[in-house]
Specification:
This is Acyltransferase family protein. Keywords: Acyltransferase, Membrane, Transferase, Transmembrane, Transmembrane helix. It comes from Exilibacterium tricleocarpae. The structure is a single chain. The chain has 402 residues and is an all-alpha fold. The protein has one domain. Helix 1 crosses helix 2 and helix 2 packs across helix 8. 40% of the residues are buried.
């Protein structure tokens, strides 16, 4: 199926250099969904967020968070593994690592200090607003003072991506000392195992389930501490490795595109099963906890795996051609995710005492944050040195917003 994101045309020639617009757009969507996810976090009924919780809360916000959180970061890390493998194949090790340094390490070092200062101040103000209803800077109202300095904020995803790139470097160094037959055997095994095969799906799903079972929710979420979490590294590392292997089997994307809606249906089914099991498992000392927790972990692993395959297939099916608005949105997503936390909290805090339903506050915060991020990107990032750091190029003129 030409143009579906596969790197082979009808003649079978390999086009490693062609741009995969569908996967670029998918990566941008997953990053931009952070605005939706984090806006919903402010209005949860669940006690999950410590920097700010609005008095108006809704179960709909819980469901929004659970749904997006199930697939968002796993899909993002799968794409990161895919594109890292693509860079290695296209440019070789030295240029690939130079590119990852410029796109990951430099933004982490550059943006973390101002983000940390801004979010630390806003966290203190939010603690005062939640405790007294008034703006203030009483640091004694912070429950866990360590979080003020031991915090990568929403750049934790870059922190772990850097770890994965370092792991790739170590793996390449190790391959120099391993027998050629062993490395060739690994390459042959990955080359002959389709990404859509039962073996591949169950290997990924059960691996995610095994690691996720150590969490009450049956899956692992990001950790913001500078101290790396082994479970987070392994959980999203499986997704990164899945993307790496998918690049070796990139002709499978054509099949994923055909099966996308079926995989999406399966993903949603297993997510519902996981939610039911989560409700039934109860506390860890309950009689049926082990059974329902095991079912929860396995169902979640299957849901995550099917979501990843479904999104890859569907985006390559429907967004495989270049479109200016998709290119613009894809370019803006990095900046949107890095910068969104500050305007989000600035918009949410003044509405603290406003007694309207949580959904209205959520829509105002989410849409307002996205608007601010897009405007700042368009005016102060896209055609500047910052845009060059984030996107690898600087646009010479300001195009009209889409």
């Amino acid at each position: 199926m030409p143009g579906m994101g596969t790197n082979k045309d009808a003649s079978g020639s390999d086009h490693i250099g062609q741009r995969l617009h569908g996967l670029d757009f998918l990566r941008a969507v997953m990053m931009s969904l952070g605005v939706v996810l984090h806006s919903a976090q402010l209005y949860l009924t669940m006690d999950m967020v410590d920097y700010y919780r609005d008095p108006m809360r809704s179960v709909s916000m819980d469901l929004t968070l659970i749904f997006i959180n199930t697939f968002r970061m796993p899909t993002f890390y799968l794409l990161s593994g895919f594109f890292t493998a693509l860079l290695l194949a296209r440019r070789g090790p030295d240029r690939m690592f130079r590119n990852r340094y410029q796109r990951l390490v430099i933004p982490f070092i550059l943006f973390l200090p101002p983000l940390a200062i801004s979010m630390t101040l806003l966290r203190i103000v939010a603690a005062n607003v939640m405790a007294t209803g008034d703006f203030g800077l009483d640091i004694n109202l912070i429950d866990r003072p360590r979080i003020l300095w031991d915090n990568t904020h929403n750049l934790w995803f870059l922190y772990y991506l850097i770890m994965y790139v370092v792991s790739v470097w170590l793996a390449l160094q190790l391959c120099r000392y391993l027998p050629d037959d062993f490395c060739a055997h690994i390459r042959r095994w990955t080359a002959r195992t389709p990404a859509y095969s039962i073996v591949a799906i169950f290997t990924v799903s059960l691996s995610l389930a095994a690691i996720g079972s150590f969490s009450e929710a049956g899956r692992i979420t990001g950790k913001l501490s500078f101290m790396p979490s082994i479970s987070v590294y392994l959980y999203f590392g499986i997704c990164f490795l899945t993307g790496w292997v998918l690049f070796q089997r990139r002709e499978d994307i054509t099949v994923l595109a055909r099966r996308g809606w079926g995989y999406m249906t399966a993903a949603c089914f297993f997510l519902v099963v996981a939610l039911v099991c989560f409700e039934l498992q109860g506390k860890s000392d309950a009689a049926g906890y082990q059974l329902f927790h095991t079912l929860l972990s396995v169902s979640t692993g299957l849901s995550v795996c099917f979501f990843m395959l479904a999104f890859v297939g569907l985006f390559c099916r429907y967004f495989h051609r270049h479109q200016p608005w998709i290119r613009y949105f894809s370019d803006s997503a990095y900046w949107v995710f890095i910068s969104h936390s500050v305007p989000m909290i600035l918009l949410a805090l003044p509405m603290h005492s406003w007694e309207v339903v949580a959904e209205i506050k959520f829509l105002l915060v989410c849409s307002g944050t996205m608007l601010v991020c897009m405007l700042t990107y368009h005016r102060w990032v896209r055609n500047t040195r910052i845009g060059e750091i984030l996107n690898g190029r600087r646009y010479g003129t300001l195009p009209k917003p889409p």
